[in-house]
Specification:
Elements lengths: L4 E4 L18 E6 L7 E6 L6 E9 L12 E4 L14 E5 L3 E8 L6 E4 L3 E15 L2 E5 L3 E5 L4 E17 L41 E6 L3 E7 L6 E6 L4 E4 L18 E5 L2 E6 L2 E2 L13 E2 L4 E9 L11 E5 L4 E2 L5 H5 L4 E2 L1 E8 L4 E2 L1 H4 L15
């Protein structure tokens, strides 16, 4: 879980009078989860955060399912034809009631603000650079960063170099794994990362000039609002609820004498799914170890694996930007020759992001356009 942070100017108690130098009251806002029963942050605005000048249009968002046979899939997301800003360039590829998984190629900075009112978001940066500007402060983003943006955070992404994003939107909160936290929420000694690895927002000078457009993601689409004042007019905040960043290169892999199962690679959890990452690591050190993973029958989960960089030791024919989808009900594993090739290997040089869901996923029609129909046959022994 996130840990306590504070920024800017704060009164010495919550819910008391807090004034500027001219005697004007600041506007206190509580941002909280599960009503008033979970983590929260108090923020202090120069202007009322409720002042909407105009309600604009609702732009529907439709997730069109591709009804296809039940099989394994390989798609290359870099074959998608899309560009724009961090919102307009998104192309959903997989979805269920708990998650939407998308790709985006972000060439343009946003000239409006955005708030996801329906999902938490995990933006994985496959390439490029930019600045995530939020009502809590700024976070620089570059290769390998996961940006965790809780539902309700207001933000925009400024692009320095075009950014390739792998995006996971979740119906519930994205958190550090339970297995790596003590009962007070601190990451344990054997966790593959610690709080030192987490970047939190850098507070910036409050903005108050308006009006400005804020697009809000709802279940049915994007609702546009014109706010009378800029929502980044916050003079101070404190609490546990804010966006944060963790870089995949700061993940310390857990290894063993024999092959370790995928849960050791888990980075985050959310209701209905886990997010894991595979990083460069030493292989197993038993003298007869088989470094390649054993075959696995997915009985209760679907697996989406996004290939980022390196030599993918269990799979042939995949490239950077490839996505494999192994649905529940079918076994999958190393392709022919990959087990033998792994024998005696000392280390893996790969980076990949995996999303395992506990409800079946649907693929979108956009995924159908870049699907390799021969992938289900790639386990055939051609010798």
């Amino acid at each position: 879980m996130p840990f306590y942070q504070s920024r800017g100017k704060l009164p010495n108690k919550r819910h008391i009078q807090f004034k500027d130098d001219d005697g004007n009251l600041y506007w206190e806002e509580l941002i909280s989860r599960e009503g008033f029963s979970h983590i929260y942050t108090n923020v202090y605005h120069i202007h009322p955060p409720t002042a909407v000048k105009k309600v604009g249009d609702l732009s529907p968002i439709r997730l069109d399912a591709w009804d296809q046979e039940h099989r394994h899939h390989h798609i290359n997301s870099r074959n998608l034809n899309h560009s724009g800003d961090a919102i307009s360039s998104r192309i959903p590829l997989f979805f269920n009631a708990d998650v939407v998984i998308s790709k985006a190629y972000v060439a343009d900075s946003m000239d409006y603000l955005y708030r996801n009112g329906n999902y938490d978001e995990c933006l994985f940066v496959h390439g490029g650079k930019g600045t995530l500007k939020t009502n809590f402060g700024a976070l620089d983003l570059s290769y390998g960063d996961y940006a965790i943006i809780p539902r309700g955070v207001i933000w925009q992404l400024d692009v320095d170099e075009p950014m390739e994003l792998f995006i996971t939107e979740t119906a519930g909160p994205i958190e550090t794994p339970n297995r790596y936290r003590n009962r007070l929420g601190q990451l344990l000694e054997h966790s593959p990362y610690s709080e030192r690895d987490i970047k939190t927002p850098v507070f910036e000078t409050p903005q108050s000039k308006g009006p400005i457009e804020v697009k809000v993601r709802l279940a049915q689409g994007l609702q546009s609002y014109e706010y009378q004042n800029h929502p980044f007019d916050i003079v101070g905040w404190d609490g546990y609820y804010y966006p944060w960043v963790f870089n995949v290169n700061d993940f310390m892999p857990i290894t063993g004498k024999v092959h370790q199962p995928p849960p050791v690679h888990q980075a985050f959890q959310a209701p209905g799914l886990v997010i894991c990452n595979f990083v460069p690591r030493l292989f197993d050190y038993h003298p007869e170890a088989v470094p390649a993973p054993y075959a696995h029958s997915n009985v209760d989960s679907d697996e989406v694996l996004y290939y980022v960089a390196g030599d993918f030791m269990s799979r042939k024919g995949v490239e950077e930007g490839s996505i494999t989808y192994h649905p529940m009900g079918l076994p999958h594993g190393p392709q022919p020759g990959k087990i033998e090739a792994s024998l005696g290997a000392k280390s893996a040089d790969e980076i990949a992001v995996m999303v395992d869901t506990f409800k079946p996923l649907q693929m979108t029609t956009a995924a159908a356009e870049i699907d390799d129909p021969n992938y289900p046959l790639s386990w055939m022994d051609e010798s």
